[in-house]
Write a structure and sequence with these properties.
By secondary structure, this protein is of the alpha/beta class. 24% of the residues lie in helices and 27% in strands. It contains 6 helices and 15 strands.
Length: 217
């Protein structure tokens, strides 16, 4: 399923175990947040085509973390720089199969991460600005992206609608995940765009969602 979120922001909601994928069409960059798995590659290419875009038009891939179900289609985008938090990027660049959980996903191709993100960074795509929020727990280098002017949170696997990411995988830490969720609870989130599952609309609904998440971590 795919839909328009707001001017310049579009969503591909995966119906498989591959991650959701989000397109941000800025004036400076056309970026993707996570690229899903090869099983979704044809659907993602068709989605881009419906937006009058080609794979070569994507100039930046922003990753929420280092699991294979989120970077499996990076190779589709030949001109895109690949960005990730430094801890997770290190695991990817050394092709650490355990940390990347590649055993769950057949045919994984590791990308080369060249851009390293931290919580001090704001990414200006041109008309769309993303604050990088460090939210370790699901992985040691998990991050979220927050478009503050619209109240849109790209939460990766830190937070879902009605659930949270696993904290029992290599590099996971339940205590850090709880701290990360608490930090997110301070935001005014109007729209949650998670790494898997449904999009959650409404500031009241998102406040209740995080409150519930903090009770189950």
């Amino acid at each position: 399923m795919h839909c328009k979120i707001s001017p310049g922001i579009f969503a591909f909601v995966s119906e498989s175990d591959g991650s959701n994928c989000f397109l941000l069409k800025g004036k400076k960059h056309i970026a993707i947040v996570d690229s899903s798995t090869p099983g979704n590659s044809q659907q993602i290419l068709e989605w881009l085509s419906s937006l009058s875009l080609k794979p070569a038009d994507i100039t930046l891939i922003l990753h929420t973390h280092c699991h294979a179900d989120h970077f499996g289609n990076d190779s589709l985008f030949p001109k895109a720089k690949i960005a990730m938090q430094a801890n997770d990027a290190s695991a990817i660049n050394r092709q650490d199969k355990d940390v990347a959980c590649t055993h769950f996903f057949f045919g994984t191709i590791f990308p080369k991460v060249t851009e390293f993100l931290s919580g001090k960074k704001t990414i200006d795509l041109g008309g769309i600005k993303l604050r990088v929020l460090e939210t370790p727990g699901h992985t040691s280098g998990s991050i979220c992206f927050f478009e503050q002017s619209k109240g849109i949170l790209f939460s990766g696997d830190t937070l879902f609608a009605g659930s949270i990411g696993r904290a029992d995988l290599p590099g996971s830490d339940a205590e850090l995940l709880q701290q990360s969720l608490f930090s997110l609870s301070r935001l005014k989130i109007k729209l949650l765009l998670p790494g898997h599952g449904e999009i959650l609309k409404g500031e009241k609904e998102n406040k209740a969602n995080i409150d519930a998440a903090l009770k189950i971590v």
